[in-house]
Amino acid sequence: MKIKVLCEGQTEEGLRALLAKAVDIRKCGIHIKSYDGVTRLLRKLDSRVKEELASGAEAVFCLVDYHHFPLPENARALPRDQRALVIKNYVTEQLDESRRSALRCYVILHEIEAWILADEEAIAQRLKSKNLPPWPEPEKVNDMKPPARVLEELFRTRSPLRKQYIKAKDGVDFLGKIDHKKVYDKCPTFKMLVDDLRRHCQ
What we know:
Layout: E1 3-8, H1 12-22, H2 25-28, E2 30-35, H3 38-54, E3 59-65, H4 80-92, E4 103-108, H5 113-117, H6 120-127, H7 147-158, H8 167-177, H9 180-186, H10 188-201
Parallel strand pairs: 1-2, 1-3, 3-4
Helix pairs in contact: 1-8, 9-10
């Protein structure tokens, strides 16, 4: 069995470490490929899916961030859940019709840092800071202050050396250390992804 997971951004290693806690990556043949931003991911999506299916992949999973996605103007005023559906449909439509059924698209609300906010204890330990507020529903963090910005502010105000949050470094490190069960319980997109991966691995 082979499953390809395509994602945007610079968190490939962290995503692999997080998923490995919830799913047997080797047994399921899960391979993760990251792209430098959603534009590059979408540009190569159809050809990549075609290649993966030709090489024996059973399915291709695609992760995109809700925040900063280039939404059509007529969709920007829609409620968040409807906008996420627009994004999912848009991503799927980048594929030739013959390959669309093989793609599973997951829209992370708002971005992968939401999964990090699910484990405030890991954040507190990293920042050596106490009494951090809990985020019971990290995927519902305010549009005007998305998860990455929350982490940036925490690093700036709570870390001993007032360090800067760097996604490629700190994001990857957090994803490898956070409790996947907390992410599963608090983040519906992660739960859906893990449940689907487990079904494919049976």
